[in-house]
Amino acid sequence: MHILLLFPILLPMIGGLLLLCVRPLQGKISMRVTSGIGLGLTALFVLLTARYDSLALPVFTLTDKMTLVLKMDGVGRLFAVLISLVFLAVGIYSFEYLKHEEREHQFMGFYLLTLGALMGLCFAGSLITFYFFYETMTLLSLPLVLHERTPEAVAAGKKYLYFSCFGALCGLFGIFALAPYASTLEFMAGGTLKDGEGGAAFVLAVTFVMILGFGVKAGLFPLHSWLPTAHPVAPAPASAVLSGLIAKAGVLGIIRTVFYIVGADTLRGSWVQIAWMILALITVVMGSTMAFREDVLKKRLAYSTVSQLSYILLGLSCLNTEGFVGALSHVVFHALIKSALFLVAGSIIFKTGCTKVSQLHGIGKKMPITMWGWTLVSLGLIGIPPTSGFISKWHLGQGSLDAGLGALDYIGPVCLIISALLTAIYLLQPVISGFFVGKDGYKDVVDMEPSSVMWVPIIVLAAASVLYGIFPDSLLRVIQSIAAGILL
Question: 86, 90, 435, 479: which one has the fewest Cβ atoms less than 10 Å from its Cβ?
Answer without folding.
Answer: 435
